[in-house]
């Protein structure tokens, strides 16, 4: 029997066949899948929904320091305890050890590196699969992106101060 993710993927592929669209919205899929009894809530799903909501709220908690830098107030780190993986959250200003802070940053960097690897692999495949198209480019230097976002954030803060 297929695992839950494989079942969802099979249902998605079945649904894609029915839409014939170039791209699809998961919300439309969920409506179709529920109506066609392809998706069902499992008992542990409610816990997962709450867990996801809590994680989202914690991830979105922001503060601004004395230098004007906006940062995530809550940080997470994955640990293995008694053979079980757990995700722990800490307030960067009130708790968390130096070791946890280092581990959180290292894990975040590893996640970014994995995302970049996967994106580059996807681009490589797209360029291989569609040689007649103009090649898709993926710039690996994010310095300019960082500076643009930093400037935009400063501008938004400035506008809020003028309006407020």
How is the topology of this model organized?
Elements: H1 4-19, H2 26-35, H3 45-59, E1 62-64, E2 70-72, E3 74-81, E4 84-91, H4 98-129, H5 143-163
Antiparallel strand pairs: 1-2, 3-4
Question: Which terms would index this structure?
Answer:
alpha+beta; two-stranded antiparallel sheet
Series of H and E elements? HHHEEEEHH
User: How much of the sequence is in beta strands?
Assistant: 5-15%
Shape: extended
**What portion of residues is helical?**
55-70%
Uncertain ranges: none
Major beta-sheet overview? 2 strands, antiparallel
Structural class: alpha+beta
Distance from first to last alpha carbon? 58 Å
Strands of the widest sheet, in order across it, are: 1-2
Tally of DSSP β-strands: 4
User: Total helix count?
Assistant: 5
Would you give an account of this structure?
The structure is a single chain. The protein is an alpha+beta fold. It has a domain at 65-163. The protein is 57% helix and 13% strand. It is built from five helices and four strands; from the N terminus they run H-H-H-E-E-E-E-H-H. The chain has helices at residues 4-19, 26-35, 45-59, 98-129, 143-163, and strands at 62-64, 70-72, 74-81, 84-91. A two-stranded antiparallel ribbon has the order 1-2. A two-stranded antiparallel ribbon has the order 3-4. A hairpin with a 5-residue loop joins strand 1 (62-64) and strand 2 (70-72). It is extended, with a radius of gyration of 21 Å. The model has no long low-confidence stretch (mean pLDDT 91).
């Amino acid at each position: 029997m297929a695992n839950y993710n494989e079942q969802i993927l099979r249902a998605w592929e079945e649904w894609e066949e029915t839409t014939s669209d170039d791209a699809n919205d998961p919300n439309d899929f969920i409506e179709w899948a529920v109506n066609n009894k392809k998706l069902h809530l499992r008992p542990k799903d409610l816990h997962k929904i709450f867990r996801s909501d809590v994680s989202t709220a914690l991830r979105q908690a922001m503060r601004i320091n004395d230098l004007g830098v906006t940062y995530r107030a809550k940080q997470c780190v994955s640990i293995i305890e008694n053979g079980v993986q757990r995700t722990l959250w800490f307030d960067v200003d009130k708790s968390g050890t130096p070791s946890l802070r280092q581990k959180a940053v290292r894990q975040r960097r590893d996640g970014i590196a994995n995302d970049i690897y996967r994106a580059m692999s996807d681009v490589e495949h797209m360029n291989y699969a569609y040689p007649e198209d103009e090649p898709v480019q993926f710039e690996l230097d994010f310095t300019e992106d960082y500076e643009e976002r930093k400037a935009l954030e400063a501008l938004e803060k400035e506008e809020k101060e003028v309006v407020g």
